[in-house]
Amino acid sequence: VQLQASGGGLVQPGGSLRLSCAASGSIFSINDMGWHRQAPGNQRMLVATITRSGSTNYADSVKGRFTISRDNAKNTVYLQMNSLNPEDTAVYYCYLDQRPRRYWGQGTLVTVSS
């Protein structure tokens, strides 16, 4: 299984970005999908998750600003990020759970700066 993330870049504070992550390869039955992020000098942290049925969970720091969604037919997960601030600067990693393991994408850099 391979995951290809895209959509990162440089954005001004208050701006928006939409990340995408498409899975390919030996896809049988994907369970949860989601995003983590890792800022410089910090540990990787959970940003958002979404179950196959569409139930979502968010880190407190992004609630109300970020929206996770998925297209099961395309094996793709999205992260719409609004009202971005400099504290959101990080490498964003997508993942999916397909038993018995978790697969990770390569990461996409989001930089929020004026």
Topology:
Blueprint: E1 2-6, E2 9-11, E3 17-24, E4 33-38, E5 45-50, E6 56-58, E7 66-71, E8 76-81, E9 90-98, E10 101-104, E11 108-112
Provide an overview of this structure.
By secondary structure, the chain is mainly beta. Helix content is 0%, strand content 54%. The protein contains no helices and eleven strands. The strands form two sheets. Strands 2, 4, 5, 6, 9, 10 and 11 form a seven-stranded mixed sheet that branches. The chain has a four-stranded antiparallel sheet with strand order 1-3-8-7, with no helix packed on it. The model has no long low-confidence stretch (mean pLDDT 96).
Distance between the termini: 37 Å
Task: Detail the poorly predicted runs.
Answer: none
Count of individual helical segments:
0
Shape designation: globular
List keywords for this structure.
four-stranded antiparallel beta sheet; mainly beta; 114 residues; 11 strands; seven-stranded mixed beta sheet
Structure described in brief:
The protein is built from no helices and eleven strands. With 114 residues, it is mainly β.
